[in-house]
Amino acid sequence: MIPKPARLRGMDVRLAPWSESALDLLRRINTVQMRRHVGGPEPEEQLLARHRRYLAMPATGRGCMFAVLLGDEMVGSIAYHQRDWQGEQIYETGWNVLPPYQGQGIATAAGTALITIVREAARHPDAPHSLHAFPSVGNALSNALCHRLGFTLLGPCNFEYPPGSGSLMCSNDWRIDLANSGRPAVTARRDRL
User: Fold this and answer.
1) Burial class (CB in 10 A: 0-12, 13-18, 19+), 37
2) What global pTM score does this model have?
């Protein structure tokens, strides 16, 4: 289920499932500035492997990567996927918005749309019942976005990123209970992501 586009100053913000054409977006995200909180840019080989994983996600039934579109232009990415966390199955989310589009509310609109999608996915009897985000403790903008979207801060944690690397980053664990059918608590404050 893809929610209706969110209206943002007369423009539509919408999510589109990851596609071959999103590889260029992934390359635009793979910069020192955009990846400073997650270990820096990846070599092309790793980037292509990431792109293939994103394309394959829907077939697993465990999540989906989306391009964030402003009108027809890809301006960011957002995803959710199922994973084990502290002995339970959860959904995890993460996002990126390209620098020229930050501070316009795009990340808030994309996050709100994603939460709607994940709430629908959580209706399946075997699905996780919580959505978590793990921004670096030093990423003030992503932490503020979690708060705006209605996540509850559970506290700092050591989080392995990238998965399987053995490399730990100090993150905040933010959680939304998906069983609560209410809308995310998004404030009117301008998004700075």
Assistant:
1) middle
2) 0.85
Report how far Cα 12 is from the mean position of its chain's Cα atoms.
Answer: 18
Distance from C-alpha of 178 to C-alpha of 61, rounded to nearest angstrom: 18
Residuewise pLDDT in 10s, the chain (193 residues): 555 545 555 568 999 999 999 999 999 999 878 787 777 888 899 999 999 999 999 999 899 999 999 999 999 999 999 999 999 999 999 999 999 999 999 999 999 999 999 999 999 888 999 999 999 998 999 999 999 999 999 999 998 776 667 778 889 999 999 986 554 444 433 443 4
